[in-house]
Every structure is written in structure tokens, then in C-alpha cells.
Amino acid sequence: MASPRLETYCCPNRDAATRLVMNFQPEVFCGVCIGSASISVLLTILQLLPKKGQSPRKMPKASSSTILLLISICDILGGLGIIFRSSVWLGFPGFIANISVVNGTDVWPSTFCVGSAMWIQLLYSAGFWWLFCYAVDSYLVVRRSAGLSTIVLYHMMTWGLAVMLCVEGIALLYYPSLSSCENGLEHAIPHYITTYAPLLLVLVANPILFRRTVSAVASLLKGRQGIYTENERRLGTEIQMRFFKIMLVFVICWSSNIINETLLFYLEMQPDINETPLKNIRSAALITWIIMVVLNPMQGFLFTLAFYGWTGWRVDLKWRKREIPWESMSSSTVGENAYPSPVNYPSNIHDSKKISTTDSQQTDEAISMLSEGNTSSDERLTRSSPIYQGW
Asked: Residues annotated as region Disordered (predicted)?
């Protein structure tokens, strides 16, 4: 799981709310972490591997295709970090117990605690930023303002912001040293803000960008041939449903974190969190804590279902030479060379036709990128393409 409480736990003088959740059935906690993360990592890799009986996945034509893969990679690496950290905690309880020793001479337990927590936070935070970049890029592609070159800017923004916020939050939390990092909320609050800022950004900004993208797709489909057929309406609905699935997975996997953190902050502000009136709040905090353990690592697999659907079990590990997909160029070449026109059209008509065909190709590529992984959508798009119809 990914929670700022993991970094707070590395402080020997951790607060009472952190002790409440981290000391609640630690063996069960680590076991569930390992199980959930292992299932998610294995199924995510299975989803991404090529399958028998299916055509090889096309090379990415736009940066959004690359972003989807990077989101899955971040989830896989984050899940591996959860498995490694939980395995050490479960297998070497004495080693982890040294974290609680104030002014201890052995620095390796604290180093492992901080390092593993930072690894998990950094990768999941980068996944949040990549998901935001996906929403931005989808809108820009439909507006024909993005391309492969923009992926460099996304890399700079994603990794730069993820590293900067992670380092800043950790530095403020552990300042001036690990032994004094929980002497006041002024240390912890900036750390929690830097952790949850990208998560809240995705929750707020992505639905707005997705909604605007869907509206732009509808305009493109209407303007491609001047009509809005049933196939095009269905294609627009499938793109909208894909965006809805992405946000649904994100809300399911991370809403429990926000609820849990709110409850724990409320408990921190109480003089004694063990008071009887706070029993229900403590129980709710522990329940959401276990839910986080299950849902946070499962994001990787659930995202691949939202991106590509279920790709099947039959894995094809044989190496095969894949041709570079130049469908648009080859189709247009066949259309021009196979059926040469004996009529010499005026140059202005020919140029107008060429521009219309180019615009239609750009529209088809933008829409096919948004519906990548949906075979039926790609087939309908091809049939409705002016090139396919010999226009």
C-alpha cells in the first residue's frame, strides 16, 4: 500500500494515530500486502504480454499510448516495492523493531524503512502524474496539438515533480533528524500535502479534461463526413466509457486513503485517542486501513482492464518480426497506384481532396489512439474511414 504513514512510522517517536494503525495485526498487514501486490503485479504483466492468436500490438503512434504503458510500469515497480518491504518486515521482525529505538546505534533499520517508503511513494506519485498527463495529452491530441515530441515534456514534468515533492516532503518530515520528526504537526502536514497533492489533482482535473475531450471527439466525428452515424455515436460512447472506467478504478483504489487520513488526523487532534467515545472512529480508521492494503496495490491490474480490457491467458512468448505499421501510407499508396484516374482534374480540386484526406487521416489516428485496445472500435473506424471506402 502507499500511505504517508509509512514514512511517519520510521520516526521512533511516532504519533499515537500512526501507532494505532501500524501496530494493528502487523503480521496480517504484511501478509495481505504481499498477497494483494503479488496478484496485481502478476496479472498486470500477464495483461501486457502478447497473446496467441492475436495480432501484435501496434507500435505507439502517439504519446498517450506510451503514457498508458508507463502508468502500468510505475504500478508494477511500486507493487514490487510493497512486496519487498512487507517481506522484510514479516521475515525479520527483530530488524524492524530497532526502528523504535531512540538514539539507536544501528542505522540500517531506519535507512531501510525510509528508503522503501520513499520508493513506493515516488513510484505511485509518478503514476498519478502520468495519469494527469494522459488526460492532458488525450485532449491535446484531439485538438491536434500533441505528438510524440511532447512525451519528453511529460517525462520532465512527471519525474521532476514526483522527485521534488517526495524529497521535499521527506526532508520536512525528518528535519532536523529522525528522532524529532514527530514533535509537532508542522513536520507532518507538509509531508502529507506533498503526498496527496497529485492524487487530488487527478481527482479534480482529470474528469474535467476527459469531459472536454469527449466533447471534442464528438465534434471531430460529426465534422469528418458532415454526418453523425450510429457507428460514430457508438465509438464516441466507448471512448467516454473508457475514461469513466479509468476514473472509477482510481476512485475505488484511492478514496479509502483520503477517508483514512481524515479519520487519523481527527484522532491526532484528540487528547487521548483511546477514549471510549472515539471507539467507532478508531474502528473506521482500522477498517479503511485494511481496505487500503487490498486496493492500493490492485490499481495496476485494474488499470490494464480499463485501458485494454481482458486480454486473455494464452501468452505468446515467441519472438516475431513485426513490421512497422504504415497503414495510412500504404492504404493511400494503394488507393493512388492501383486505380489510376485517367482524368486530369484541376489542381485546386486535387489539392482540396488531398487536404480533406489528410484531415480525415489525422482525425482517424486521434480517435483510434483514444480507443486503443478496443478491436471493435478500430474496425468500425476503419470501415468508416474515407480511405477504406475508396474516397
From this structure: 370-391
Angle at Cα 199 formed by Cα 81 and Cα 306, nearest 5°? 75
Give me the phi and psi of 350, to 5 degrees please: -60, -45
Residues composing the chain: 391
3-state secondary structure 348-385: HHHHHHHHHHHHHHHHHHHHHHHCCCCHHHHHHHHHHC
**201: number of Cβ within 10 Å:** 16
> Smallest Cα–Cα separation from 306: which of 372, 235, 367?
372
Local structure of 57: helix, strand or coil: coil
In eight-state DSSP terms, residue 228 is: -
Tens digit of pLDDT at every position of the chain (391 positions): 678 888 888 887 778 888 898 888 888 999 999 999 999 999 999 999 988 766 655 544 557 788 999 999 999 999 999 999 999 989 888 777 677 555 556 678 888 888 999 999 999 999 999 999 999 998 888 876 555 568 889 999 999 999 999 998 888 888 777 766 766 666 778 888 888 999 999 999 999 999 999 888 878 777 665 566 777 778 888 888 999 999 999 999 999 999 999 999 899 888 888 888 899 999 999 999 999 999 999 999 999 999 988 888 888 776 554 443 433 333 333 344 443 433 343 444 344 444 444 455 555 555 665 666 554 444 444 444 432 333 3
- Helices and strands in the chain: count of H runs, count of E runs: 13, 0
The answer to whether the CB of 22 falls within 8 A of the CB of 5 is yes
Residue type present at position 336: E
* Residue with grid cell 528508503, as numbered in its chain: 115
User: In this structure, are residues 315 and 46 in contact, taking their beta carbons and an 8 Å threshold?
Assistant: yes
Cα 175 to chain centroid, rounded: 31
What is the phi-psi region of residue 3: left when phi exceeds 0, alpha when psi lies from -120 to 50, beta otherwise?
beta
